[in-house]
Structures are given as C-alpha cells and as structure tokens.
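Before the break, one more example. Copy the sequence into your notebook; we will annotate it together after we see the structure.
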Amino acid sequence: MPAPKGLIAGLGRFPIEVAQAARNAGHAVVAVGLRGLTEEALRAEVDRFEWVHLGEIERLIAVFRDAGARDLVMAGKVPKTFLWQKPELVQPDARALQAMAGIADRKDDSLLGAVADLLEGEGFRLLGQAELAPGLFAAPGQLGVVAAGENELRDIAFGWPMAKAIGELDVGQTVVVRGQAVLALEAVEGTDEAVRRGCALGEPGASVVKVAKPAQDMRFDVPTIGAATIQALADGGARALAIEAYKTVVLSRQETIALADRHGIAVLGLVDGALPGGGEDVS
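Here is what the structure looks like once it is written out:
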C-alpha cells in the first residue's frame, strides 16, 4: 500500500482543499492540525488527524513517522500575530527552539525555511502544494465575466513591480492602487486587511495586485485568495484584482469568482505581469 501524504495544516480552507485534492488523486492523507488555527472540519477530509501546538516539532515528526508518511506538504497560513495574541497556544519544544536560534530574523521565509530544513534533515520530503493540488492555482486570463477597464489596467501595470519589490523584501505580496498612487502595502496584517485599509484611504475604484515573491519557494507561503478577499474588495469599492497565474491559489474557486462577478470586480491571472490583449510585460 502506498505511503500516505502528510499535511501540516494552518489557518483557513487551504488545508481542507489540499486534502480533498490529494484524496481525489488516490492518496491517503495524515494531517497534523495546529491548535487555535486549523479548522476542525479538516478532520473529516483526511484518513488520520492529530493536534499539536505550534512549535511541537518532535510530536509532529512522531505522528508522521508512525503513519509512514515521508512526503509532506504545508498548507494554511500561520499569522505572526498568532504568536503575540495566543501565546498560550505556542509551545516550542527543544527542537523548535534550536531551529529558531539559528536564524537571523523573523521574516516568513526565514521561519518557514528553518522548519523545512529541519524536516528534510529528518528524512522527510517537503512538497510544493501544486504537486498535490495543481487545480487550486489560478489560470492565466480573465477569471470571471467582468473585464478590467483602462484605468484598472493602468493601475495594475503601475502596482505590479511594487508588489514584486515588497515580495523580494519578504514584507508582503499585495499592493492597493488607485490613479497610479499606492494606497496600501501589505505587511503583517495580511491581504484582506491591507485591502480594507487601502480602500478606506481613497475613493471607490481601487485595483489590487497580489503576486508571488520573485524567489518564491512554492513549498510554503504561496499567495492565496478566496471569497473573503473578494468581499474585502467589494466592501471597499475596488474594481479589479490581479493575481499571478500558476503561482496563486484560488480557494473555493467557483464561489470566489461568482462573488467577484456579482460585485462587478474583474479578476485577472497574469503571467510575468503581461496585461491581457497583448499588453506589455510590467514585471
């Protein structure tokens, strides 16, 4: 019998959809959920489910070894704010403390890279989410029925290289733009809150650009949108969302795009920043 796939599950629906895709492809799935973050609904979508506190590396390793899982995937965000707001649910063991002591900063790539290196040092293989769930990633082109207007396309072209720049700094992945002026850059608050903050600072009609980092490690922290993202745009009167095709996850795709259509929001998947209709590469 083939070995099961291991799932390290963080916040939101992403782990659920990865588990569903893996099982639809014929894989058994063993999931480890993070207390205070992972949705209880994941339990029904996997073959075995165990809880750990954030930082319990030894227990996480023991669960996957006991299950015979060697290929692992991370899915679902672990917000930095969780570390400060829920300290009682953060219980790093000696292995976690040792790994954290060896990194120079607390950027997402540094933290997640340290965990990835530790797991691979234990003989596990950390997969990119696309290896188990390729259908979750955005295709290129117009994703709904609403087309972006000229103003939105100009703002997207303006914002794309800025989103790439903050991604390279590992600060965030999202920029909110209106009239070729930056209204907000994403930081620790996350995409949806950055959108709300940016839209509140300008009149309706903003465009939002969300991209992968220039050196994106596709094993973790890939850009992700869902219905909550679209609702944030709608609440702020935004008119367009540009995401990076093949590198951005669209959760609950049918529901998410239908919501954008109802609110008159254009959703575009771009490759290397190339605008639709032969527009120039803006990356």
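The chain has a mean pLDDT of 94. Residues 5-134 form a domain with the Rossmann fold fold (CATH 3.40.50.20). Try to locate both features in your own notes.
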